[in-house]
Amino acid sequence: MARRCLDAFKGRTVCHVGEWGGMTGDATFEKQLTESFQLVKVVPLPNWTNTCYALTVWQRRGSGTADPGAPPAVVCCSGCGGPVPLDGGVRSRLCHRLAYCSQTCVDSHADDRDAAMAAQLLPSVLHRRQHFTPLLAGSL
User: Fold this and answer.
1) Domain boundaries, the chain
2) By Cβ atoms counted within 10 A, which residue in 22, 63, 86, 93 is the most buried?
3) Half-sphere exposure (Cβ direction) of 14: Cα atoms closer than 13 Å
């Protein structure tokens, strides 16, 4: 349904509230949004430990309102703090606030990831590679 709304939308600005790579829209919607619009602002929202909601503001490409500079990151890496590539990063299925840009960051963040899992009363043994899902079509 999100993609159909985007197809019908003729305006310049889209505000998306929810989880990127979560249950707010699907990968097709997110791909179309990133191809047709440029991210201009990310506003973190209150979250439970297993969610990662944010308000993202997007401007239609070619509308003259998008900033030609580097856009902010939709998702930041839990390991290094840098942007998670939307075509190659991963997010935890069990703790959505955990996302990574590379296998190096997944590996280096193990202790902090275990603490985040413990905060959700989940044993760290559950947080293995099969519990990560790719953002869009990419994977590690």
Assistant:
1) 2-134
2) 86
3) 26
Beta strands 54-60; 37-44: pairing state:
antiparallel
Helical H runs in the chain? 2-8, 27-36, 103-108, 110-119
Please report the DSSP string for 66-98 in residue order.
S-SSPPPPSSB-TTTSSBPPTTT-EEESS-TT-
Residue 139 DSSP one-character state: -
| 98-128 residue pLDDT tens | 889 998 998 898 888 888 888 777 776 665 6
Q: What does the radius of gyration of the chain's CA atoms come to, in whole angstroms?
A: 16
